[in-house]
Amino acid sequence: MKYKTLFRLGVKLLGVGLVGFAVYGLGETLTQVVWIATGLLGSAAFSPVDWMGWFQITTVLIPSALQIALGVWLFKRPDWVTDLAIPSNRPYCPNCGYDLSGRKLGRHCPECGVALPAEL
Description:
Order of helices and strands: HHH
Mean pLDDT: 79
Structural class: mainly alpha
Low-confidence stretches: none
Helix content: 55-70%
Shape: rod-shaped
Oligomer: single chain
Number of helices: 3
Strand content: under 5%
Radius of gyration: 23 Å
């Protein structure tokens, strides 16, 4: 495995970690939602304390949703981040990282056999 593939794997693991921490934080928020919702069902009026509770919930829900979206995006599309961090001046196989600079005409990687994009 080449260094670029290892970096891509690290970006994917970062995405999984972001999703995991966001889901953990949402577990605590959901208990607050249940607590506030049960308080609203028992009262006829909506007090300012209830507004503060909803404000606290939304300040956790929105960043958690963004964190989950970023984590999923990093897991599904690590190539953009990897190419920004490690630009390649020679063509490499996108799957195994094999150096394709001296290859003959062919549409497959000689190392792993994966089909190559047209721009390589």
